[in-house]
Amino acid sequence: TDTNRGIIMTSTTDKIKGKYDETVGKTKREIGRATDDEELQGEGELQNIKGKGESLKGDVKDKLKDIVDKG
Predict the structure, then answer these.
(1) How far apart are CA 24 and CA 18, in angstroms?
(2) Closest CA to 59 of 26, 21, 10, 24
(3) Which of 3, 19, 22, 49 is the most exposed place for a label (fewest CB within 10 A)?
């Protein structure tokens, strides 16, 4: 249905955003470590955590879609 299509698209979007933020966050963190820049290291860690949360949100949406489809 159209509702399910919206859930799939948003879950995929969440996962893509999540992976992007995880990758950028890890990169910032490592550059911060290499340059002794604690602020950049902290920013990177926060962005990495944000990305993991976005990815998890996409996974939850997928699980909810599965439940709705079975119901």
Answers:
(1) 10
(2) 10
(3) 3
Please give the DSSP secondary-structure letter assigned to residue 53: H
Buried b (16+ CB within 10 A) or exposed e, 18-57: beebbebbeebbeebeeeeeeebbebbeebbebbeebbeb
DSSP symbol at 1: -
Report the C-alpha gap between 11 and 58 in whole angstroms. 4
- Quick: pLDDT tens for 23-64: 999 999 999 999 999 999 999 999 999 999 999 999 999 999
CB 61 within 8 A of CB 10: yes
